[in-house]
Amino acid sequence: MAKARTVPACGCPVAAFQKLISGKYKLRIVWDLKDGPRRYGEIRTGLLRGMPGSAEIAPRVLSRELKALTESGLIDRKDFGVVPPKVEYRLTRKGRTFVPVVAAIKDWGTRHLAEARAPEMVAAE
């Protein structure tokens, strides 16, 4: 007899996944951490790269995203307990298994969003 797969409490794995990654910066934080541990300021700087204009990320928003990723088990927060405070964030084992998913999203966006953007840019000119 085949063993039943565990399905999240919401009943739908897609909905559970959507809830896990909902948030403006979560995917980009995971993508940035794929290269190794980062401190808060390094994560913030990485998120600002590639954003149009002089966009700013509210500290409260970034802290909320980091806390949610920590609670979901995708990243780990290491507090060194020194003054001034030193905290690092790194992917957990579970978080590292998520990197190929983000890479697939990035690849899809590279292929398909560039095509979709071209007509918009022509219309705007």
Give a quick rundown of the structure:
Pfam families: HxlR (PF01638). Keywords: DNA-binding, Transcription, Transcription regulation. The protein is mostly helical.
Secondary structure blueprint with pairings:
Blueprint: H1 13-21, H2 26-33, E1 38-39, H3 40-48, H4 59-71, E2 75-79, E3 87-91, H5 93-124
Antiparallel strand pairs: 1-3, 2-3
Structural account:
This protein has 125 residues and is mostly helical. It has a single domain, classed as Arc Repressor Mutant, subunit A (Orthogonal Bundle), CATH 1.10.10. It contains five helices and three strands; from the N terminus they run H-H-E-H-H-E-E-H. This is Transcriptional regulator, HxlR family. Pfam families: HxlR. One of its GO terms (molecular function) is DNA binding.
Keywords:
single chain, 125 residues, mainly alpha, Arc Repressor Mutant, subunit A, 3-stranded antiparallel beta sheet, 3 strands, globular, disordered C terminus
Q: Name the strands of the widest sheet in spatial order.
A: 1-3-2
Give me the count of strands: 3
Mean pLDDT figure: 84
CATH first level: Mainly Alpha
Strand fraction equals 5-15%
Helix content bin = 55-70%
* CATH homology-level superfamily: Winged helix-like DNA-binding domain superfamily/Winged helix DNA-binding domain
Low-pLDDT runs of 5+ residues are 1-8, 120-125
Question: Which overall shape is indicated by the principal axes computed on the Cα atoms?
Answer: globular
- Tell me about the largest β-sheet: 3 strands, antiparallel
